[in-house]
Amino acid sequence: MMDPSNSDGLINSLIDTAEYAEFRDEVRTWLAEHLVGEFYEHRGVGSPTDDTAWDVRVAWERELSEGNWLGLTWPKEYGGRAASLAEEIIFEYEYARAAAPARVSVQALELLGPTLLAHGTEAQKARFLPRILAVEEMWGQGFSEPGAGSDLAAVRTKAVLVDGEWHLDGQKVWTTFGDRADWLYVLCRTDPDPARRHRGLTLLLVPVDQPGVEIRPIANIAGSTEFSECFFNDARTTEDMVVGGVGNGWKVVMSTLNRERGAALLPTQLAVEREVVGLIEAAKRRGAVDDRRIRQRLVDAVIGVHLMRCTNMRVVGDLLHPRDGRAASTAAAAVSKLFASTYHQRLGELALEIYGANAVFDRAAETEKARKLFLLSRAETIYGGTSEIQRNIISERVLNLPR
To answer: Which domain holds residue 303?
Structure first.
């Protein structure tokens, strides 16, 4: 059986626990006092690809907001705590350790918020950041399009400035929780000149509640409607809703994706550990552990969790103590993401071997976790940057191979 203290030791080696002991104890105490009742019953529920128990998770996130646990590193004037990165990492680790419900505002908290802090105007920060931390507005990401998934420089959604308003026309797809969003941050082409492929892009903030925006939820293979396709037909947003300046969308979006491929990986680690422990227990309960091949695969799964810990800790270490600049940090995040996504898919396949292929169709409570593990993990080598893109990053920035 795996011992979470092993992960504690790795965290302790990177962060001076004596210095942060009081903060860590504050986090643990608050979670113990507030993760109760309906929230406790929904521990571990939800994920970036699962909208299960949405209303409960929104209520839980507002509970976190009341406790001032959202946007820890954000400046106090916008509702944050101005905490250190080390404190944010400790919180995320303890949050995952307590198996608290998956947060619903990941798009705003982990992606858009840091992007606005880095590139937004003062007016944009004052308008949007406090509402994000109060869980008053939900956000969706309008990046990928049909024919422009990993190659975001190929986006065709266009925006034209007319009399102080941007007019948008085009289509986006795979917009996570888009059907829940009040606003979208949308990568648009504002310069049609093909020679300005990267320099002709602009990031716009677009309100959803208007005649020119249509959002259609898409049910994924597990039955969750966690992403959507979005259509813009003369949708409007005001001139001041540009993030980072007109024509600077590529640079702004790259900073957003680097955030997604880095610190956002850490909270998944302990959830995967619990999945492995659950599969070991299921194999014993169902007699599958008597199969020598299954036993070997369970051993491989345990080894894989330890490797995931190491790769995640390398990312955390680079964030806390940069060694060779941003390239090394980005490469470490790419290695971590690549390994975690492919490993998790193999874990889902092992779950089906233990529970049987019928678990894919069986809605019984006993097989629900195995079903979702197998089905939802299929997309992990695509979202957040495809495995092919991660391998390119590793080959160019670590191995110095030609493009």
So the answer is: 261-397
